[in-house]
Amino acid sequence: MASSLLSSATEKVKNMTSARSQKVADLATSTKDVNNDWKATTDYGVKINTHDDWLKAASGDRTGPMLLEDHIGREKIHRFDHERIPERVVHARGSGAHGKFTLFESAADVTTAGVLTDTSRETPIFIRFSTVLGSRGSADTVRDVRGFAVKFYTDEGNWDIVGNNIPVFFIQDAFKFPDVIHAGKPEPHNEIPQAQSAHNNFWDFQYMHPEATHMFFWTMSDRSIPRSYRMMQGFGVNTFTLTNAKGERNFVKFIWTPELGVHSLVWDEALKIAGQDPDFHRKDLWTAIESGAFPKWKFGIQVIPEGKENDFDFDILDATKVWPEELVPIRYIGQLELNKNPDEFFTETEQVAFCTGHLVPGIGFSDDPLLQGRNFSYSDTQLSRLGTNWQELPINKPVCPVMNFNRDGAMRHTITKGTVNYWPNRFEKVPASTKEEGAYVDFAEKMAGMKARIRSDKFKEHKSQAELFYNSLSAPEKSHLTAALGFELDHCDDPIVYERMTARLADIDLDLAQAVADMVGGEQPKAQTRPKHNKTSKGLSQLEYAPEKPTISTRMVALIIADGYDAVAYNGIKAALTAAGALPFTISPRRNKIFAAGEDKSTGKGVVADHHLEGMRSTLFDSVFVPGGAQSIETLRKNGRAVHWVREAFGHLKAIGATGEAVQFVRDACDLPGMEFSTTSDVVDSYGVVTAAQVQPNSFKEVLSMAKGAKDFV
Ligand code: HDD
């Protein structure tokens, strides 16, 4: 069997010659396809003749005691007992996918890195998305930062950007990382709450630690409840360096922006989805890739040439600061695309190990004190999670050759031929390469100073960019942020925590501080405690990241029907949605055949609903459409869940469409006085509810325009 597996793997590799699938092809050499060979063996290769029973001392027709001798049974239980490995100490919950990075503009003016200069290359990538605080089994839609780690398998070795969907961080110095994480994780005495920052310790730390102010404004914004991993920006956060062929060094931040735009859930939706479908983001990513709707991000760099680093009123090495786009524009040079789901979660997504220390020639570190500490932590944590030889695991192996004198350690896989494992040696084959041969040569940075545990003065200002962020949000985003703070501090039961926090908010914005204090209790701040600068900046509000062309592609639209529905409207909208790349789902009171008005139940084909109204709720869809049909609407009116579906979708600011008899049904379900609905004119778009009394092609076009995302504007 082993040889047939090996040859089928080799065959796979031969068939995958394109650079884009280079890593996938490499993985195929370690992949067993058990779909075609079900004959089980022991781990040492002996075929077994039962998969059901332990070896027993049977006497007559009675089952006797089990025998310890059963080496096959023991092996099975023993292997099972040790299946789990420690989860990641942070970012335990996540999911990932394979893809490629393509470069459309060379950055040779600032770097020599092949991955950023050779436009003919396609570099294989693996991306893992994650939440930070929750355990491996926690829900996807909790309020949290999302991890966005990218591994580039370049021709010169692996390059990892271990990023987030938020451009700044809670702390400036890695020394503080265990503190901020301990404060955010479940509390030590009772391990409550799971995957939440809404508790005393988290907010106590935020208050005690003013440098976190900018970051918690971001985590209280809609950015921390994304609609989909596919609809989030990614940021390398730390400041790295790029060096060009002339030896000139530049400081750089990496940023990537989704083709589909940046979109979020509303908080009530996120809370409900956490129970209704804890795998919401994981499924969304998986399904999009399986259906060929490959998620894409424009990849950009912000560059500050060496010599200009002191031109700013913040320190460019401070990870609690953004580089405002007015000052340092983003230059988009490439594209990240995800196009293949992993074959096995554990060996790929769980065992993938990212390290900020993984750089390739042309890319370097900066003296960012958060980054420097991270460079130790990532390779260190892999030891307790995966063991010494974690870099040999298939998902972590580079696609270029690896050779050095590092040897042995637990679970070493590579068998290295050769009689010496040290340098210098009598064979005098020089193991070192020159820069021209592609070696990583460190930039000769000038160093001077005294050893001290200090930070530079510019690191001491913590409020200005928090205000910049808040000022730059739209009115709805501000109100979401206010409500988020209200929710979080309401979950803190120690008055010192919520009272001090609301006081702190008055450093940024008095109205915000008063609104939150009003909600959560305690003393009302009376005055702004720090003079405001009232400035705004580009690129901070997520509304700026609407897709270039409005699109409904990959959005999930529920079509609610019951027997007697209007087939013309139903078929028309379904076809229009499918043509626009959306995913229509039919939802009915029962998951069974539903018959159109006038269709004979004994001879008609009917439509089989994808789900019934109780099975999938409105929260799991982007938009709802209700076709008319007198009998269908009469049934839906009497169904409390159907009415709630529409009402809840409206409450979550979703686009809702209705035609014919459904117009009045939707109007009644939404039940808002003063709303303008028309049962006579062609198409009315009011508060994101699009209704058309008469069914005609134009009404479908209008419904598609809801792709612009009513919720972003309300
Ligand atoms: Fe970290 C995991 C992102 C600061 C220590 N981090 C981890 C992951 C992401 C980030 C996305 C999950 C990677 C994966 O999917 O496997 N971390 C960040 C960002 C930071 C940051 C954007 C700030 C700029 N991290 C940070 C500091 C330290 C760590 C300051 C320690 C000094 N991070 C870790 C870790 C983890 C980790 C303990 C846990 C699992 C792992 O590394 O592989 O080493």
Automatic annotation (TrEMBL):
Domain (Catalase core) ranges: 41-431
Domain of life: Eukaryota
GO MF terms, alphabetically ordered: catalase activity; heme binding; metal ion binding
Polar residues biased stretches: 1-21
Protein name: Catalase
Organism of origin: Massarina eburnea CBS 473.64
Protein task: Catalyzes the degradation of hydrogen peroxide (H(2)O(2)) generated by peroxisomal oxidases to water and oxygen, thereby protecting cells from the toxic effects of hydrogen peroxide.
GO biological process, one term: response to oxidative stress
InterPro entries in UniProt: Catalase (IPR018028), Catalase_AS (IPR024708), Catalase_clade2 (IPR024712), Catalase_clade2_helical (IPR043156), Catalase_core (IPR011614), Catalase_haem_BS (IPR002226), Catalase_immune_responsive (IPR010582), Catalase_large_C (IPR041399)
Enzyme Commission number: 1.11.1.6
Protein keywords: Heme, Hydrogen peroxide, Iron, Metal-binding, Oxidoreductase, Peroxidase
Xref: Pfam families: Catalase, Catalase-rel, DJ-1_PfpI
Binding positions (heme): Y378
PANTHER family referenced in this protein's UniProt entry, alphabetically: CATALASE, CATALASE-B
Active site: H91, N164
Region: Disordered, residue numbers: 1-28
Similarity annotation: Belongs to the catalase family.
Catalytic activity: 2 H2O2 = O2 + 2 H2O
Gene Ontology CC: one annotated term: cytosol
Cofactor: heme
Top-level EC class: oxidoreductase
Record keyword Heme present: yes
